[in-house]
């Protein structure tokens, strides 16, 4: 399948996350056009002007800012607008106010780009991905949440630092909610194909239960520590979402832990959460299924329950997912 020709990315929200994403996109170069749409159009115009002044040093790219007209005929529309997570808040504390913002944005976007790939970044991302899916009416494959792509990168970083290996050679995933109930898949984690437990033993390094608890806590609480020290996270998520967009615009068929609608995965259905998925030009092209440890399955079901409860609190009940044991 050919690579998209237009390669326009529209970012809704010119706050810290939106501008960090625009900056990362500009440097990485997967898009030929980057636009920023913001409620205060002057802010978006100023950010676009600032970014444009560095165009001599990157690949040829058009950068513009304004209102919702910036979403015209976009290949990919990224939703970053919403209330930011404050110190002491969980991502799920944001659900009601950001769900209302998302519901207002969707028709504005679709009136200008009738069939884009939507990427939801605003938190709580799994809940808002479901809201965007239901409100847009787009195929499930074209509504993607940034999910645990950043959490997975944090996991690989922490393991790489512990074992003193290049993070790019660590293959380990975080699934479930992008939040406190996220699930590290220790049963699938490996370094250059060697399971983490075996690699640790070969190196004479700790891989016991306390090590696993510490690594999982480090990943799960990373955002809280950053927010406590500098009010917000944005550089990491900017790079993570750029990776998703690169997979789409370059049709890379990359395996990424994006959030998307789940249909009968270990008995979980009708909720958006993160699982390893193949991402390409058409959005989500396939789900990568793997046998998980029993403990991981139970934690994943619990994570789905957290998201489902949050959806019910804002009137998106959906179907109950089944907690009965599932084969596979």
Describe this entry's structure for a reader:
With 328 residues, the chain is an alpha/beta fold. It has a domain at 8-145: Rossmann fold, CATH 3.40.50.720. It has helices spanning 16-28, 41-52, 95-110, 125-136, 149-163, 196-203, 209-220, 222-230, 235-249, 294-313; strands at 8-12, 33-37, 62-66, 76-79, 117-120, 143-145, 170-171, 174-175, 183-184, 190-191, 194-195, 254-256, 259-262, 271-274, 277-280, 283-287. The strands form five sheets. Strands 3-2-1-4-5-6 form a six-stranded parallel β-sheet, sandwiched between helices. Strands 7-10-11 form a three-stranded antiparallel β-sheet. Helix 2 links the parallel strand 2 (33-37) and strand 3 (62-66). The protein is globular, with a radius of gyration of 19 Å. The protein starts with 7 loop residues before the first strand and ends in a 15-residue tail after the last helix.
């Amino acid at each position: 399948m050919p690579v998209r020709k237009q390669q326009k990315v529209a970012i809704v929200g010119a706050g810290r996350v939106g501008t960090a994403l625009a900056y990362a996109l500009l440097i990485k170069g997967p898009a030929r056009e980057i636009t920023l749409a913001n409620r205060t159009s002057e802010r978006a115009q100023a950010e676009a002007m600032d970014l444009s002044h560095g165009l001599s040093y990157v690949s040829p790219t058009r950068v513009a800012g304004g209102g919702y007209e910036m979403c015209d005929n976009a290949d990919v529309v990224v939703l970053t607008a919403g209330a930011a997570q404050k110190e002491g808040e969980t991502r799920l504390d944001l659900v009601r106010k950001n769900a209302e913002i998302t519901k207002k944005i969707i028709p504005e976007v679709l009136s200008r780009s009738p069939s884009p790939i939507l990427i939801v970044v605003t938190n709580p991302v799994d809940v808002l991905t479901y809201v965007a899916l239901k409100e847009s009416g787009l195929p499930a494959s074209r509504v993607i949440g940034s999910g645990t792509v950043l959490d997975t990168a944090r996991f690989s970083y922490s393991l790489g630092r512990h074992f003193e290996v290049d993070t790019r050679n660590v293959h380990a995933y975080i699934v479930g909610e992008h939040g406190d109930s996220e699930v590290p898949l220790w049963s699938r984690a490996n370094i250059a194909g060697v399971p983490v437990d075996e690699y640790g033993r070969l190196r004479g390094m700790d891989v016991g239960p306390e090590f696993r608890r510490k690594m999982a806590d480090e990943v799960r609480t990373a955002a809280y520590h950053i927010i406590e020290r500098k009010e917000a996270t944005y550089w990491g998520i900017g790079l993570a979402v750029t990776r998703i967009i690169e997979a789409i615009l370059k049709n890379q068929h990359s395996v990424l832990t994006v959030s998307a609608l789940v249909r009968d995965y270990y008995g979980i259905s009708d909720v958006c959460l993160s699982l390893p998925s193949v991402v390409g030009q058409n959005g989500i092209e396939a789900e990568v299924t793997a046998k998980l440890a029993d403990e991981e399955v139970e934690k994943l079901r619990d994570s789905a329950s957290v998201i489902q409860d949050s959806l019910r609190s804002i009137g998106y009940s959906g179907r109950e997912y089944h907690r009965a044991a599932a084969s596979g």
